[in-house]
Amino acid sequence: MADQNGLAKDYEYAVDVQQLSFDYGGPAILDNINLRLPPGSRCILVGANGAGKTTLLRILGGKRMIKSSHVNVLGKNVFTEVPNATYLGTEWLERSCTRADLSVDYLLYSMGSQRWPDRTRRLLEVLDVDLSWRLHQVSDGQRRRVQLVMGLLQPWEILLLDEVTVDLDILVRSDFLQFLKEETEIRGASIVYATHIFDGLGSWPTHVAHVTEGSIQEFRTMDDFEELEQAKQDHVRDERLDSPFMEVCYKWLREDREKLRNRKPIDPETGLPHTKWDELSANMKKYGDKYYNYWK
Hints:
Layout: E1 15-23, E2 28-37, E3 42-46, H1 53-60, E4 70-73, E5 76-77, E6 85-88, H2 104-110, H3 117-126, H4 140-152, E7 158-162, H5 170-187, E8 190-194, E9 207-212, E10 215-221, H6 226-233, H7 244-262, H8 276-291
Parallel strand pairs: 3-8, 3-9, 6-7, 7-8
Antiparallel strand pairs: 1-2, 1-4, 4-5, 9-10
């Protein structure tokens, strides 16, 4: 295959996952995941916290090894070869270096910005980053923008984004998503993006995967998305939602929440679902106060 620049691509699918399952020795985190995305795709992962989105992205990025499943990215096995993939997650802000007295100019130079001067200027403009910023003096949102500039300096073939736009203001987020769309359309690069922020995404993705309880329950292309077409025809909408696409995503998430609630036993005292946190609280009352009673 070739991208829109005529550059040859020696793979049919940017992402090719077959029968992927994963656990930590207990209940399945991922259960029989199958996902195929052609080059140039922009795939949104829709799912509640704990659905398995982050685990899936980390496996695609080669950051978590599994032995028996078929997981190819850019035509390469992510565990035995090194595809040109970039993974960006929220954990970057937790590192001590993100609050060090370092300038953005120094950081970008250390990342090789001189090799891609035009691309560096473009990213600085899109993400509204000032080279004179010092990390210990800026906000978390500004640090996130610095992370994105650093992470995207080197041209990538596939980008794995895990909630990294949550700290961006609405204007920067809009410009950033447009930049990413251009990357896929011009260079034939691909993106898998997990997010809970669906406003402004109605025309952005090419594919949508609904992840729940470790499985992909629905997989749609934007050209064959019956639920979205139905939502477009419905004129009575939730005033909190700004697009038919957001309506569909919220509908999926509400259904997931109800299914999960219905599987939990109801506490007869509170009338609410009984969770593991109730067990922990009960154990603390039973055993903890025996040894740590600060009121006596």
